[in-house]
Amino acid sequence: MSEKAYIVHCFSRFHRNRCLVYIIGRLESGATFGLVETTFLPFFYIRKSDHDKASSLIKYNRLRFETTTRFCMDDEPVLLLRHADKRLLRKVATSLEQLGIRTYEADVKVELQYLMDLGLRSTCLISGDWIPGRGVDRLYSQARLEPSQADVTLKSVVLEPFFENSQLKSFALTEVASDQMTVAKVLVHEQSSDERELLLNLKQSIQQIDPDVIASWRPQDLVFLPLQKRFKYYDLSFDLGRSREGTWFVDRQFRGRELAVLQGRQILDIEALMDHTWERYSESTPESIIAAVLGEEVPPPSKTNCPQRSLLLSRLLREKNLIDLSMRRSLLTGLSLERCWGSIASFEYLYMQELHKQNYVAPTLGVDRLLNGSSPGGLVMTPSAGFHKNIFVFDFKSLYPSIIRTFNIDPLAYERALETQRSSEDIELPNGTKFDRRAGILPAILERFFASREQAKETNDALASFVCKILMNSFFGVLGTPGCRFAQGPLVAAVSQTGHYLLRWMRSLLEEEGFKVLYGDTDSLFVDLGIEQELTYEDAMDKGRKVQQFLNESLRQHLWQDFSIESHLDLEFEKFYRDFFQPSMRGKESQGRAKSYAALKATESGDVLEIIGLEAVRRDWTDL
């Protein structure tokens, strides 16, 4: 019988000359499951043309080449190297790189290689025989995993410990409510002068509650690494996870520190999750943020205050939908809850899966990459200072993602254009960069996200819409980040300079129609249509929409005639200002100050004052 499931944690170990890949998760039915894959072999690739140069090193390490049907992104065939010990593969890859031999996917984690090989993301369809397990409800043997969507509810808790002189004195575990209507409850609160007993009770409580997610404020620094030291002090096994072996391990580095990993569970940092909301607070502390969001005072850390502090943190998670946000992003990117907020990791996992479907392999970080030169920021047009009436604001909807879709800006399309040099067939952008016309991977990924976001808007799912938006907008930045294996300077420059081109082209079109562009910034245009009389809100909306329709149709025709491409760009009529004031630059009275204005915005319910980039100044201040 097959069941749909969410993969909570996937990790690997090398044990007794075998590579073991562990998958632990939760089924739609609510049961937990685990499986161990024992036949998978980690791998990496080199170019076929480097066979002779690499042969002696490969033989010395008792490896052998395997032929594949895959290619580098410039269409050269590759050879495959496999071995159960990933450490040996890393050593060989490093030696090859020292010989000037390029490697491909040598730095990809074993568990990600395994999941990508199966075409899996964060959910799957699992089938096979199982028995009751230790640490999980079901332990599968020879399970079959297939790609599938799943609707799984995870069990989440907040852990709030209290340490005094580095010793654990108290802890509380509080559930995170599954919806806004459910009242969260403190599940466990214990305090004791017997620290050893308290540590054992903490472990037992976690094992009994069996959460998929444990959230805390700065859990690495303030919770799990301090706990690890106390467990070690009493020679207690630190097995808070679900692994059959029940071992604790630290398997990667984070900002120069060891990073705690609980097998079969996910550790979420509430402070980091709050950063992803794009909201800013006076201080990044539970006290400051909870006061601003919930309007409640957080009691100081103490043995008796753990329950109340954990309950307030749980309410914060629920109020801001932080677990749901992470879950949505995990489902979109295919990565675990701990990894899914990384923009580079998300981009690479999505892109590599699609790359493999087309029989291409990805470069190891730093291989086949050009990051020379700088990319200009968004274009800021010189503002016109002074007072203005009846100003219409137009804004490109998701400008950079839309440029990528329209002009087929894509790492593989870029490599193909470099390789083939088919100047008459490639798409040549305004800055001279060329891209192959065959459908690119990145535009296709963005098309899926655009469709998902529109569907979310139609169903009033603000959470899903927000996740899609921030993920799409992150892709442009990733293309210029040194930590991304697909980063290329020309790609980033192509996007930003095309944005400049489009804004200037729109300004020219508007001026040809007798209109005046007062100001432009990155993706927005502030336009004076030459209307002197007062407009009702309805008349202004009608006029703005008509101009919007004209501009989009003109742009569509221009892109087809000059580039032979279909437009995915959408210039929206965003708002209408009855009165608009832009201050002048100091010493330049006619030139306005960018990103600074005050305006009276017309709305259906009345006019609203908007102040952007300006500060209030008392009238009794001196000129000095």
Write up this protein.
It is globular, with a radius of gyration of 28 Å. The chain is 36% helix and 27% strand. With 624 residues, the protein is an alpha+beta fold. It is built from 16 helices and 26 strands. Strand 10 and strand 11 form a beta hairpin. Residues 251-256 have low confidence and may be disordered. The longest helix is centred in the C-terminal third of the chain and has 27 residues, at 537-563.
Tag the structure with descriptive keywords.
36% helix, 26 strands, single chain, alpha+beta, globular, 624 residues, 16 helices, six-stranded antiparallel beta sheet, five-stranded mixed barrel
The radius of gyration over CA amounts to 28 Å
Summing up helix and strand content along with how strands pair, one would put the structural category as alpha+beta
What is the average of the pLDDT values?
Answer: 91
Shape: globular
- Tally of strands: 26
The biggest sheet, with number of strands, parallel, antiparallel or mixed sense and barrel status, is: 6 strands, antiparallel
Distance between the termini: 80 Å
The proportion of residues in beta strands is 25-35%
Task: Please describe the topology of this protein.
Elements: E1 3-15, E2 18-27, E3 32-37, E4 43-47, H1 51-60, E5 65-71, E6 77-82, H2 86-98, E7 103-104, H3 110-117, E8 123-131, E9 138-147, E10 156-164, E11 167-175, E12 186-191, H4 195-209, E13 213-216, H5 219-233, E14 249-254, E15 257-261, E16 266-269, H6 270-275, H7 286-294, H8 306-319, H9 322-333, H10 343-357, E17 386-396, H11 399-407, H12 411-420, E18 427-428, E19 434-435, H13 441-458, H14 462-478, H15 489-512, E20 516-521, E21 524-528, H16 537-563, E22 571-582, E23 584-585, E24 588-592, E25 597-603, E26 606-612
Parallel strand pairs: 3-9, 10-13, 13-16
Antiparallel strand pairs: 1-2, 1-8, 2-3, 4-6, 4-7, 5-6, 8-9, 10-11, 11-12, 14-15, 17-21, 17-22, 18-19, 20-21, 22-25, 23-24, 25-26
Helix pairs in contact: 7-8, 9-14, 11-13, 11-15, 13-14
